[in-house]
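Give me the fold.
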Amino acid sequence: MARIQLPTRESLPEELRDRWDTQAARGQVLNIQRAFMTNPGIELNAFRIWRASGLSDRARELVILRCAYQKRSTYEWHQHVRIARAAGLTDEEIFGVGNWHVSTLYSPDERALLGYVDELAAAPRPGDAAWSAVKANRSEGEMFGVTFLITLYFQLAHVMSALDLETEEPFVGWTLPA
């Protein structure tokens, strides 16, 4: 159970019900969205950050999944398995993120991105080799976008963990389903 009480539509002040309804029109209102509604002064526009990263949907989801894996964020992992599948990744590609170093499923650029995630998880400043491998095909703005995306998902993983945010359905697990 979450450490904070997540609002329902009925418990929200009238001025926030439009926000709920907008999100509900796109599908289920997720627990992370409900958490943000507890403090409407804090907003997250994930779609805008996704686009600003300059990454393809596939590369973006690999990066986010590796962030979730590194931080052991069950909520983030669970949500992005679903999003990655919608972006066309296979279950083998998704669950292979946990052991990407020995996998042949990823392109050289994807491997560079996954390594960059690992370096940022280990230290605030990635090494020059990891930086250069990702920077090789990207502009300054795209490097900022990729770096921001990674560190944002680390931050979200910490928030979800601190709040004990639960998945809406049973957790998909960390390994390839049998």
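The two ends are 28 Å apart (CA to CA).
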